[in-house]
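User
New here, help please:
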Amino acid sequence: MEELLELKTLLLKGDIKGSLAIVEDLEDMSKNGIISAIRSYAVILLFHLIKQQAENRTTRSWDVSIRNSVREIKRKNKRRKAGGYYLNNDELRETLEEAYLNALDEASLEVAEGRYEPEEIETKINKEQIIDNAFLLIQ
């Protein structure tokens, strides 16, 4: 809110350069919030894909969570008015890569009733296959 008040003040003074700098800051803050939300849903998506692969099974609950996460990632990533996407394919894949370790940690609490450390689970799964699968689901 403070930025909007400052923007208004600068516009009233005719300071276009200062106003544009604030607009850029506001755009960055907005994009960072969207990326953060996408990353949170990516953790949930990867978490369930890891569990599926590690336990070689699925449940309706996991399937629903996967579908919901994919929908939310797609919804958050789509630019409504301007068209296009906030994250291009490379950035989306990078976000999945960044979310992977958090998802692996979460999975270690549930796979085989929490008996394995993240490093042990990682030996039972194929990280690239999981990330590729997540990426394809989002596409």
The chain has a mean pLDDT of 92. The longest helix spans residues 16-55. The chain has one domain: 36-138. Residues 36-138 form one domain.
